[in-house]
Design brief:
Layout (H helix, E strand, L loop, with lengths): L9 H11 L26 E7 L4 E6 L14 E7 L4 H10 L4 H8 L6 E5 L2 E12 L4 E11 L3 E6 L7 H9 L9 H36 L3 H33 L7 H66 L15 H22 L4
Parallel strand pairs: 3-7
Antiparallel strand pairs: 1-2, 1-3, 4-5, 5-6, 6-7
């Protein structure tokens, strides 16, 4: 895996930290419900798509004027209104006013980076969930906020950009497969939540593959770049854990809710999504443990290699210490040294030095140090 933005890239670090600590954009002391779009403008023009259906009919349209969706509030059939793009505050405010949404709900829609949550209001239910994806090029998690508003006969979904994970749900609606066309808006809400949570498994697969590659790299040939990649992976896992951990509480809140908007027959399916969210959390925790273990393994390998180098240097120094001593003795400038006048003194000294060095090498080999 080739990470295009290593840990040394300050811009990459700021982006990761920004997903953990959101910058406050709204002015301190502003009135509750003040609309401020805190995310990036990810598209030029807001797109409005409407799916209106019952058991026998389906109508799918795309509108430019937000007023064209007003009949969906009072329709007897199920109406799914999807808005792509949150930067048009006037449009979001108009939808909130028409459907009777609380100002704090409308504020949360445009204030991206909200913690996943489930809130009940009179006549509707508000859900905020993270839509996660995996960027193979950078080895990072891509997150987007999804807001789902469930009413008596309608469902509103607000996304940051075009492109979602709901096309399989739309295909089921078009083909009238399964029970989705015969059920109410609560079942549609369940189907959307299920599509979002199922996508988490693809993210886990990408993170797991990256973790496996880095673990093998640390075992075979650890480098400083390996540690950079491991730190990048740990930050991604922290951001992933922050996103998916509260989803379990959202599902648990739906299961325990007494709102008439969610029927008991639908809660049976929500229980399955709850189980999936728990599995995702457990997988994230397991990957965090593996990443932490890889860091420890890297440090152990580096320490082992350092010790090996120091051992070789120590052995070489141990061999040359007695040789240096002997050379130092016969390098002294004394006039009366007995061996200086002996013809065989020079080769004898060489022989003694070779024997000492050879004996030490043999001893170190017997001990397994060489």
């Amino acid at each position: 895996m080739n990470l295009l933005h290593p840990i040394g890239d300050p811009l990459r670090t700021l982006k990761v930290v920004g997903r953990l600590v959101r910058r406050q954009v709204k002015r301190s002391g502003s009135a509750p419900g003040t609309l401020v779009h805190t995310g990036e403008k990810k598209m030029e023009r807001v797109r409005i798509r409407v799916l209106d259906y019952d058991e026998n009919t389906l109508r799918e349209e795309e509108f430019d004027d937000v007023r064209d969706v007003w009949p969906g509030r009072d329709s007897e059939s199920v109406t799914w209104i999807n808005i792509d793009g949150l930067h048009d505050l006037d449009l979001v405010r108009a939808i909130g006013d028409h459907f009777g949404l609380h100002p704090l709900v409308v504020e949360d829609i445009v204030h991206v980076g909200q913690r996943p949550k489930e809130e009940e209001y009179e006549g509707y239910l508000c859900l905020v969930l993270p839509m996660l994806g995996w960027d193979e090029a950078t080895g990072s998690v891509v997150d987007e906020q999804l807001s789902v508003i469930l009413g008596s006969t309608w469902v509103l979904t607000f996304q940051e950009r075009v492109g979602d994970y709901f096309e399989p749900v739309r295909e089921r609606l078009r083909a009238a497969k399964g029970r989705i066309r015969a059920r109410g808006p609560d079942y549609l809400t369940y189907a959307l939540i299920d599509a979002v949570v199922d996508r988490y498994y693809e993210v886990l697969e990408g993170v797991g593959s990256l973790t496996e590659v880095l673990e093998l790299e640390v075992l075979d040939h650890p480098t400083a770049e390996s540690m950079n990649k491991l730190h990048h992976l740990k930050r991604e896992l922290v951001a992933l854990r922050r996103s998916v951990w509260p989803v379990r509480d959202v599902m648990n809140g739906l299961l325990r809710s007494d709102t008439p908007l969610f029927q008991d027959e639908t809660k049976v399916f929500v229980r399955d999504v709850y189980d999936h969210s728990v599995q995702v959390i457990e997988s994230v925790e397991a990957l965090r443990d593996v990443a932490s273990g890889a860091v420890d393994l890297y440090l152990s390998n580096v320490s082992y290699r350092t010790n090996e180098v120091m051992k070789v240097l120590t052995i070489m120094a141990s061999i040359f210490i007695p040789l240096t001593f002997m050379a130092g003795i016969y390098g002294m400038n004394f006039e009366h040294m007995p061996e200086l006048a002996v013809p065989w003194a020079y080769p004898a000294l060489w022989g003694a030095m070779i024997l000492v060095a050879g004996g030490l090498i043999y001893y170190f080999r017997r001990k397994g140090w060489l």
